[in-house]
## 1
Amino acid sequence: MSADCKNIFEIPIAQIIRKYGLLTNRRKAQSLGQHFLCDVSLLKKIVSRALPIDATEHVVEVGPGPCGLTREIIKACGDGRRVTCIEKDVSFKPIHDELLAGCSSKLKFIYSDATKIRLEDLEPRLPIVIISNLPYNVGTRLLINWLNDASRIRRMALMFQKEVADRICARHGVKQYGRLSVISQIVCHTEKMFDISRAAFYPPPKVESTVVKLTPKNCVDADELRLLDVLTARCFSNRRKTLHKILREYYKAGSDDALKLCGIDASARPEDVDPRTFLELSNKLKTLDLSPLQ
């Protein structure tokens, strides 16, 4: 790592934000969900949840902004690791150029909307580790995209607003449990790592944040996952109804047979059914040729 690169590594994030006049347009910052974590110890802690990174893995960060997390990723992984950062706001480019000037050529910035980038578009085709302080306004959408393309992902250390993290990790039987819980837990082992106070950010958001570690465990067929997504969306949008009533509304009358074959009581409500049983129910509906009614 060059001396120039060391210099930018030593500058506090808050100072970089002031140096480049960032966040002068607060309306734009709010629209992009920009809240920058400035506490170095917390940034290191996030990265540590995804370590170790081996030479075959490609690290992806979404929303690097002033590069607080990026710097810790590079320091932890070393110059030889491939790191790609995806940023929608091109006003951060001068900071990124300064970092690139002294760092490994394996650090790359892509200026685009991360929700429109598929993991398979990133080269080379290496296993991926995603480490990110996700923009609040697109965090859930990005996670769903990645869960649908999880075969290439080794693990993810992601920061969400606490309410979203609670839903991702909620077990069945509690009010936070829902569609996001089912899809996340079918594809990944999910674990809440630690909470972060709103006071640790600049500007401070209105909510607390939580870091979640997700490790893919199942290669669920894309069509299988799509049908599960449809089923859970309909069930949890009617969560106060019994599954018997919900399925009668959206599927043919034979849906009661699917419930029986999966060992689900007809009086059960969506939050009573664990993720694995939801997947079994979705597959059984397909096996019985019970396509969702339009």
## 2
Amino acid sequence: MDLATLIGLLLGFGALVLSVSLEGGHLSAFINVPAAVLVFGGTLGATLVCFPLAQVRQLPAIARHALLPPALDRARAINLMVGFAQKARREGILVLEEDVAHADNPLLQLGVQLAVDGTPQDVMREILETEVEAMAERHKQGEALFSTMGGFAPTLGIIGTVMGLVHMLGTLNDPQGMGPAIASAFLATLYGVALANLVLLPLAHKLRRRSDEEVVFSQMLVEGILAIQSGDGPRTVEAKMRAFLSPVQKASARVRER
């Protein structure tokens, strides 16, 4: 679980609830079912116009990816590849086929399999980089889905507010009810803005960051695989992969030959 995402969502909505309490308001006054139906249903409907149904159905899985990111331990990956390099130098690259079968990274499995099959290095690089680009494009689609919803939600909220005001102005028989009616109308805008800025747009930014991290991690694996296929020694493999670590990660990582 990504605690930063979870804490951020709880903190955002918690601040919203706390501000209502500090002003002496009651949460029941902020419940408006018709406004919620318009904002949530309208946002989803507009999104369906923009994206294929199959992609919109992936919303829960995409959101889960933001909350439950894959493990991307770069130091551990470098240790693993250094071990592969040592074993390949001692026994030949063919012995890695059995080891990589238990790896949980599809790109690593593909790269080592290509190396074992004797694929030329330029062809290997092209195939692996294409895999990384395709992965980034898939992630970009998920980010675009949440960004689009974040753009529609406030607009649907404004539409709901306008509809509420029109309804209120059309029934001016009870002037005393104008205040509550206006307040109720503006709840649609509140729902739309809150949904966009506390949930949808932050998740879109988190998905973009996740994608960037996975792309860099995958590029690091590609360089390690190509170095092993070229017959580079463990220290060279380690040096090429450590280039993808930040200064802080380089200082804290304990990468050593086994």
